[in-house]
Design goal:
Order of helices and strands of chain B: EEEEEEEEEEE
Strand content of chain A: over 45%
Helix content of chain B: under 10%
Largest sheet of chain A: 6 strands, mixed
Largest interface: A-B, 21 and 22 residues
Number of strands of chain A: 11
Oligomer: heterodimer
Distance between the termini of chain B: 36 Å
Structural class of chain A: mainly beta
Order of helices and strands of chain A: EEEEEEEEEEE
Strand content of chain B: over 45%
Largest sheet of chain B: 7 strands, mixed
Structural class of chain B: mainly beta
């Protein structure tokens, strides 16, 4: 089955700096890679995703890059703000189909210091 | 996206009792899932809720402990049976929508504490 590794487990940055979280996956058939943000006391929120037919996707201050050959993908947050402080999870779908189950990384606790 | 509601939002229960969690979605849903998130941990899939038939459970989870119903496309329940303190977790409903089959959305979660 799919295995997703996520690093780092904790990340501390100053407001205005950039933050990068990296994930690797094992199933070469995976073709969908979402990122979730979970604030304290809330459910995970889908913030950005990428399909395997593109290498990069950007939405304002967040971007995701995908390297299918190396089987890794990354979340980039620029100009970080204290509101970006949360736990971030990456995921990959098993088997490369729209009904494939998502496998989640272990999570990264991001703290943005004012 | 979709509006996903869960009831209750939190509960404190005594060991040996059972709790049923409800999940309601306001959009056309293709797939519904139930996840468990233990304190400080990642998300673990319990089962896929199938409309009108038995749920599909992941390894380590059994129907007797976590019975699931899905009587229609937009509603499902998860029961945590014969609870022990180890069942203290956040339980999350998650869905995929008919108009965006890859994207998966989560409800706000039910925070369960078993004493």
């Amino acid at each position: 089955g799919e295995n997703v590794e996520q690093h780092p487990s904790t990340l501390s940055v100053q407001e205005g700096d950039s933050a990068v979280i990296k994930c690797t996956y094992s199933d070469s058939a995976s073709n969908y890679f979402p990122w979730y943000k979970q604030e304290l006391g809330k459910g995970p929120q889908l913030i950005i995703d990428i399909r395997s037919n593109v290498g990069e996707k950007k939405d304002q201050r967040i971007a995701v890059t995908l390297n299918k050959t190396a089987k890794h993908f990354s979340l980039h947050i620029t100009e970080t703000q204290p509101e970006d402080s949360a736990v971030y999870f990456c995921a990959a779908n098993a088997g490369g189909t729209s009904y494939g189950k998502l496998t989640f990384g272990q999570g990264t606790i991001l703290t943005v210091h004012p | 996206s979709a509006v996903i509601s869960q009831k209750p939002s939190r509960d404190i229960c005594q060991r040996g009792t059972s709790l049923t969690i409800q999940c309601q979605v306001d959009s056309q849903v293709t797939m519904m899932f139930w996840y468990r998130q233990q304190p400080g941990q990642s998300l673990t899939l319990i089962a896929t809720a199938n409309q009108g038939s038995e749920a599909t459970y992941e390894s380590g989870f059994v129907i007797d402990k976590f019975p699931i119903s899905r009587p229609n496309l937009t509603f499902s329940t998860l029961t945590v049976s014969n609870m022990s303190p180890e069942d203290s977790s956040i339980y999350l409903c998650s869905v995929r929508l008919a108009d965006s089959p890859y994207e998966q959305y989560f409800g706000p979660g039910t925070r369960l504490t078993v004493t």
